[in-house]
Amino acid sequence: MLVPIGRESDWIFCTAAGHLQLLLTSSSQDLFLSRLIFIGKFPNFSCPPMSYTRPQSEPDLCSLQHFQEALFPLLLALCPKAAFKNGVPEIPFLSYEDNVVRSVLVDRIEGPVSGEMLVEDVEIDVSPVPELRRRLRFKMMPNLVQTQPYLAPMVAGLSLVAPFLEEKIKLGLRPRALCLGVGGGTLPMFLQSKLDFDILGVEADPVVLNIARQHFGLVEGEFLHVHIGDAIGFIKNVAQQEDTLRRGLERMSDLVEGSRIDFDVIMVDLDAGDAVNGASAPPSEFVQRSVLLAAKMVLHDRGIIVINVIPQSKAFYSELIHDFHEVFAELYEIEVGNGENYVLVATVTNVQLSRSGSCGSWLQKLKLVIGEKHMNSINKI
């Protein structure tokens, strides 16, 4: 793989986690890679670059071809003996492309749970005009950018229960959402400020929460609370207390920091912490049957769970879909459009997916704040 000029010290190209993620994501049914060799300038392992600007000119194709031909004997020498079983092997040259035009390092922090992190201001090449964004990246999962590509698709999943949410609002009640994984706080802040949700966030790393406050404008208040702790342990604990209530053994009106049991929506934005297990998000522990049953128990009878999925293999994704089908009534998939992320929406009870007809004021508001693109891409699976 040819490393882009100026990005040699990016964690994607100079860490074992980044190498493994690139190896897994570059492999496919048509192209199985047993090893990945990086070609570029030597990186500075001690410090990520303070800034990066994508070169404006494309490399000369003729010069690139000569360069690859000159490298071919060296690459052959690095191939395992098994590669020569059917003759001289073909060695594909890969290039890395993303939508980052330029980036500037804002802060570099280390947390007890998430490890080393970067806050960056980036210019993203999107149509019709480039966008300026602030993002949070993790050294243990350098290809994973918190909430950047999948906020709108995750929020679009709410359209499946729009009639239910409309009913609550007409009764003067705020919809309630549990956000597992706060990160930079973009998703919980969006739900609270744009759609009037009552939010409880759960974040494992207190340093990440401080980053969200300092660099991303997270402000907690009456309708936005954050609990520090493990998300999986938290949801199991809530489910256990809910089960106690249902059995009539104990009366309880409040849970953590004034937040009641029974959520209308659970938003899951959790990463696996490392790429070795074959999944970037969610962690494999989350899709265990006991955890999914716990999530279902703390949801309203008409509630949904929306989960960001970044699988490193089709096998993991297929198994995840099967696990959700075993617990929830229906499962829907929303296209993110980047070829890497999927958003799944699981429902406690059957819902009606309608793309036509009249819509209530809340659904109309949802369309105004995120558009209809991702709503129209919702498919039952």
UniProtKB/TrEMBL annotation:
Keywords: Methyltransferase, Transferase
Gene Ontology biological-process annotations: methylation
Source superkingdom: Eukaryota
A GO molecular-function annotation: methyltransferase activity
InterPro entries linked to this entry: Lys/N-term_MeTrsfase_sf, SAM-dependent_MTases_sf
Keyword Manganese: no
Methyltransferase among keywords: yes
Protein family: Belongs to the methyltransferase superfamily.
Record-given protein name: EEF1A lysine and N-terminal methyltransferase-like
